[in-house]
Amino acid sequence: MKTIRHSLRWLLLSAPLLFATVLMADETEIYFSDKSGEVAPNVLFLIDASGSMNQPIIGDALGRTRLGVLKDSFTAVMNAAPANLNVGLMHYANNGLGEDYWWSSIKGVNFPATPMEDKVLPLIASHKNSDNLPNPHDATVTVREFLSDVVGSWNADGYTPIVDSLYEASRYFRGDAVGWGMDVPALGWSAHPLTYDAEPVCTASHTAECVNSWGQCNANIVPGSCDTVYYNLCCNWVETGSDGSGYCEDNNYSCTDDITTCEHTICDTLTGAPAYQSPIEYSCQANYLVLMSDGKPEYPYYPGAGEPDGTLYYPPSSERYPGGTGFAADMTAQLKPAISTTRVEDYIGVADCTDSPNGYNSGTCGSELTHWMASADQNPTLDGTQVVNTYAVAFAMNDQPTAARDYLESLVTAEDGYFEADDADALAGAFNAILNSINKNGRSFSAPAYTVDQSTLLSHSDEVYIPLFDQSPNVTWPGNLKKFKLDLDGSVTGKKGQIYGKNNQPALNEKGEFLNDAHDFWGDAVSGGSVAAGGAASQLPSPDSRYLYTDASGVDLTSTGNKLDASNTNITSTMLGGAGTYTTDNTLQDWWAGVADGISCFGTYTDCDGVEHEVAGNPFNNNGCVNIQEVTTCPLPGSDISADDRTALLNYARGENPDGTFRKHMGDMLNTKPVVVTYKSDSGTDSVSMKSYVFAATNEGYLHAIDTDTGVEKWAFMPKSLLKNINLFYQNEASANHVYGIDGDITVWEYDGNHDGKIRPGDTASGDKIYLYFGMRRGGQEYYALDISNISSPSIAWHISNTDTDFTEMAQTWSKPTLAKMRIAENSSTPKVGSLVDVLIFGGGFDGCQDGCQGENPVQRLDSPDAAERAALTDIKGADVFIVNAKTGARIWSLRANVSGAAAQLLQSVPADIRIMDMDRNGALDRLYFADTGGTVWRVDMDVDLFDTDNTTWYNYSKARLSKFAVLGGTGTAKRMFFHEPDVALMKDKGKTIMTLAIGSGYQSHPLDPEVQDRFYVLIDRDPYARAPDTSKFPIQENSSLASITLPDGSDNTAVIGGNKTLLSETGLTGWYYDLPNDGEKVLAPAVTFLNKIIFSTFAPVDEDGNGKEDPDDPCEVPPNSARAYVMNLLNGGAVADLNRDGNPERSVVSGVNEILGDAQIVFRVPSASDGGACTENDCQQTVEIRIGKMSIPLMDEGNSTSSGAGGGVNAVAGSVDLTSILPRVFWVDHDVSE
């Protein structure tokens, strides 16, 4: 019977994957910036080499003994082990050096915890002729190879001193004096000199006879003392005891052999007190002890002590019952006169250990010792508490009493750290699982969704939906969506604008962090900052009750062919990732002239077993060169998906764990933002006639429709292209690559089919529809349009991807589809007769990888951390703008396909949204503004055909004009990049319209990049209605006409702009820019212009005071980061608000940590009269507040706006707005035009 306590078989197949991950640049890098996880853990193997390891493994095809299996398995594990481990070695038993050495089963540390890839020879060069280890066969031998050689040199003999060996291991981790291992280095039990600070010196000794042929002699053989004699020996010795004792079969001693006896020197007295050098170097370093034993603890003490069954003698290190006699006596002096130890109980601070645990006197103090190592500080010289956790592997103990296995399990302190293994595969699997476990280790990017009050459309309701997630070192990141409310008038919490929970208590602090007593409205209890507790995740229906869909067959998602269920045969194993591959980590180069493409002669690669190889070939004859694809392409885990696997994966996707339990899990919402849709059942506007659902997409791959009242999921949809990710989540391996699903923003279109001013999608006669559009962002290169008019019967309206002929230039779909109307010629025979068509406009996307991301290691493109590589890119996908029919998805127009010369000009990706303008206010788009990753802002004039000399057509958009509005990227490797749309605003100055364009730069894929000086820009067009840009003024360049609002020392540049000097008064200026003041600070969200103010957010890898890491070389110091919200005067960049509410205006305030904020949101409170009552004809004010991120109170409201200071006297951003002065008067209204 093959026994493995844990499910390890899949680990044996997929273990290489666990060690071959590549960190790609993306927004998640701020969660991997904590380099403490890169500090190599210390792993000390403590391995049994007692006499019982000579026993054969029953059923082993190779007829190996336990020790033989151990040697082979340990070698395989070392070959595949991750490189970022410090591994050391220790063992017990294999004594046999005669009566002077009966204690030598207890040993010191054989080899210190050392990086796996270190070369051994330089380490032991000065000791190789005097220590007790085999010598490395050459200078290239690494630690991973050498440790296998050391284990390979062992013989099996002796007893099982588990507790004393644990005690010695503890002394090593703590840096205490060497105990049982203190002796001259040549002796087999001695600690290796590399493990301590100074060698002991033997000052008194005697000589004794030893049998060298039987391994009894130590390394100090007296010269000339050896003699070889011809002896009769037993032909077949049968072992009966774990110590190797037994009998000679048939009493046959007729066999002969040459036996060499010698005299060796035995040290009686040592001087010096060597201390172990603790391997614990860093405060964040993890430390582990891995014990493997094939039996119970047992001690013989001295010849004739009796059968070593573990129930008699106590561990000598425990000095049990000092002064006692018999089995309770302190036998230390008889065992090793030179030893100086501390009683274990005193060492760990307990009065007495539990006597005879599991019935074994010999195991006394073992559990207390390992648990003390896991809780007490093992290196007080470092900050914090350094602990050592213990794993245990019970090997080939199927014939042992249950008590023996229970004893080993009692030593375990590592989570899920006990394993049983009875054969070679299981032993290797146990070691692999342990190393994998050792190698492994509620935040929110997405902004809350503030819902619009459907009864008035003028104010926001009090409901707030906050997406949150938690970073994980594994593939699966937990997420959730929680509902809270806004205290609009302060009547609940005493503070206007406060976000509060079900318990009427504030939910967040001033930085947007959840308070411990936060209780969302969907949760059954207080959940605080817990991601998994409460929220929509807690209300997920049981797996059998969920309505889950995909698009495997047709457009009706509710059809049998689209059910995401194991019974749906349209979902094939191939869709689930069958026959999939991934590319391993490599630095292989194929640029050498004369070498065929795809062949590399230089670099490194990791093979499918996780082993790294160095390539140093000859490019002139290809000797030693490799085919890159062949050596780096590996099958994905589970790529051979059986029928049972398929069922298990689909059940898992429905929320069922492999053991059949309920998995209440939602994926993370990293960049996507939830949206709320309200369904009206009739023409009324009261709440009874409305039902709202919030639509939330996750990187698990689902688009969830959630009832806003209960938080219960109505249904969820997973695109078929994401089905392949289910297996990755199911395996949930360690990964530095985030898996993306639906991470794009959602657009909702409520289509008024009969133009009656009311949307009633349930009324088919009206023709009203509700469409929902989304892209995938990093999850793919496709857009979906769902018809959700009937909430109970969703369908696919259309779907496009880069595999479609009209969209081959489309990259990762980052750009949010923007709704607009476009006037299009009705037909070719009447090219001057146009009709309005509902369209969607979006950018071409982000070129994160060339030809699509394949597997888990895509070819790096704009994501590359190498600035030179990014700067050299020319063949970039996503350099386009698309316009499609909103109802059908058919392409109507794109820059590259329809505008002559556009392809030659537009060379950089356009991941941003597109700003659409209707300059002549005729209800149709006529101008576009957008920015690209090259730092260029573009203008597109769509209606050129209306004004050219050719009067035969009016709506020929191939004549659209593409021109550069501004060139701001800089040059070389420090290029500024734009990932978001420019914010465009029109205003009047002295009766003339001017336009401002605001945008900030920042490398979205690499938020920790410190190299680029990013900026925020406000540019001005003083003649925006000109049919063509004035080439003498455009494109705007970074020259003297573009003013910096600060000087190099950070002070305001008031001589040029600021105070009373604005873009209106300084007519020679083309705009202003602001050098973001903190190192690495960048704009990672679009700006918002509101009432002559500009609001935007930034992210910087510095703390609140602008400081980076105190010690750049300390891997345990977590790099700080902070998010800031800015509010500035649109026209001169001055501070206009008291953002931190200290009585003085400032440009920015820290508004978050460990998150990238989204764009600001303008929230309108309920209109009221000046006395707080209902509005009257001449008395109606509305308070406006500006919110950003999850700040507990608004960034701006009536309490902290200012009209003085550096702002230049411009009206307040937020506060009470007199609606009677800005809204047209309504003299009557008919709510039902049908009458």
Account of the 3D structure:
The protein is 12% helix and 24% strand. It is an alpha+beta fold. Among the domains are: 44-389 and 434-439, no CATH class; 814-967, no CATH class. A hairpin with a 6-residue loop joins strand 6 and strand 7 (246-248). Helix 3 (66-80) packs parallel to helix 11 (424-439). It is elongated, with a radius of gyration of 37 Å. It starts with 8 loop residues before the first helix and ends in a 13-residue tail after the last helix. 49% of the residues are buried.
Give the averaged pLDDT, no decimals.
83
Strand fraction equals 15-25%
Number of helices: 20
> Would you tell me the structural class of the helices and strands?
alpha+beta
Radius of gyration: 37 Å
Helix proportion: 10-25%
- The overall strand count is 51
Coarse morphology: elongated
Oligomeric form of this entry? single chain
Give the termini separation. 83 Å
How would you sum up the major sheet?
6 strands, mixed
Uncertain spans: 1-24, 97-102, 301-307, 321-329, 334-339, 453-458, 683-688, 850-860, 1203-1213, 1222-1235
Strand ordering within the main sheet: 3-2-1-9-10-11
